[in-house]
Amino acid sequence: MEMLIVISIISVLLGLLYGALERAQKFSRRAITYTELKNIEAAFKQYEAHYHRWPTNSLDTIESGEDKGFIIKVEMAATLQGEREKGGATFDLINPAGIPFMEFSRYNSDIPVNPFKSLNQNQANTPRAYRVLFDTDGDKQIEISQNILPVGVIAPTDPITASIVVWTYIPATRTTDNAGTYDAATDVILGSWGSFATR
Question: Is 167 helix (H, G, I), strand (E, B) or coil?
Fold first, then answer.
């Protein structure tokens, strides 16, 4: 009987410990993602300071009003890292000086990605990729329109005062109802324009 009580107490303690470890791991991934967003933003600002223009990418273009950007894929990642060629393709037109502006640490199918696992398996790597929008119309305002976001992800309500914004999608913090049932897993936007929050 005493052994059963000890085992049940240990089981409860392990359950509590697992929950705390899971929350700590998610917080850590969130902090890493936010740091990477700020590093990407800084790299593009350094690029603009050196070349006096924003880089362009004809593939995976994102347009929100007059502002334009793209999903960061292998070609852009290679140029930001100062690589002149990769897989037979050359990138001298975007970064002819070969300056390493930053280093990406994590790839999935040649796409730099955040450390979270994608909730949407049908889109493979795309939800975890980094996206960037530049203030190409010069009004120092960037508005992320709802039509460039996945279904269920809510755009920022106010325009962002910035020359560049970088974002990615991460899993939302799951909550439970009164019965203890978890809500459906969804993605949320994490962007470089706000301060780091622990939600």
Answer: strand
Token output for 23: 């929350």
CA distance 144 to 63: 9
| Domain range list for the chain | 2-191
State pLDDT tens for residues 63-84.
888 899 999 988 888 888 888 7
3 state DSSP class of 192:
coil
Give the residue from 147, 187, 145, 193 showing the smallest Cα distance to 167.
193
Residue 118: what residue type?
S
Main-chain phi, psi angles of 191, to 5 degrees: -120, 165
Distance (Å, rounded) from C-alpha 198 to C-alpha 124?
A: 26
Which uninterrupted H or E stretch holds 80?
helix 74-80
pLDDT tens profile 155-190 = 888 889 999 999 999 888 666 666 666 666 678 889
Helix and strand totals (H; E) in the chain: 2, 9
